[in-house]
Amino acid sequence: MKKKILIIVSNANAIGPNNRRTGTFLPEVAHPYADFDKAGFQIDFASLTGETPYLDGLDLAGDPDNLKFLTGDGWAEMQKATKLSNVDTTVYDAVFTPGGLAPMVDMPEHQTLKKVLAETYERGAVVGAVCHGPVSLLNVKLSNGKYLVDGKNITSFTTEEESMYAIADVPFDLQTELSKQGAIFHAETAWSAHSIADGNLVTGQNPESARGVGEKIVALLNQEN
């Protein structure tokens, strides 16, 4: 049976005191999408509000997978993303949250998202996120009362990288907050490709890590065949 993956995206398009324009960062959704598509998975999109989401990083459209996403089915399907609260997430073998600065706006406290991620993780399905996408994991509590990230080996956009990118725009430092909730945080050299799988939890550090996250999710799901 074909594996099913749900990509959950932000609906934010601005962040910070200067209303910096943002959205889902193109390669962070396009590169994993290419991996999932090549693997033959059914790929669906959900957004937090059900409104049309936004893309950032369109200047990177020269990359083959980015261009294929924009001109093929990927972006067309993402624009029609279903409201997360209306999705039966129990039918999915994996859920994945791409980054961009947008998730830092609407994902830290979104209760439906937190519930979906806790339930997905606890039933043994794969939970993945890259760059700022792991903000979706923040404040997720499992049925035992512990934070999902507590004791897990994870990564995300790092304090060092944020200092070079958007420190004036983000509401908090993601590496710091994940570590406060018990995450065993692994930071590699800034801007290098770095992804981690800890059981059924897969995370990546930055845009260069998106393909590795996609590949690790595919590998985990293919193990179940």
UniProtKB/TrEMBL annotation:
Molecular-function GO terms, alphabetical: glyoxalase III activity
Swiss-Prot/TrEMBL keywords: Lyase, Stress response
Gene Ontology terms: cellular component: cytoplasm
InterPro entries: Class_I_gatase-like (IPR029062), DJ-1/PfpI (IPR002818), Prot/Nucl_acid_deglycase (IPR050325)
Ranges where the DJ-1/PfpI domain occurs: 28-219
One GO-annotated biological process of the protein: methylglyoxal catabolic process to D-lactate via S-lactoyl-glutathione
Family classification: Belongs to the peptidase C56 family. HSP31-like subfamily.
Stated name of the protein: Thiamine biosynthesis protein ThiJ
Organism in which the protein naturally occurs: Epilithonimonas lactis
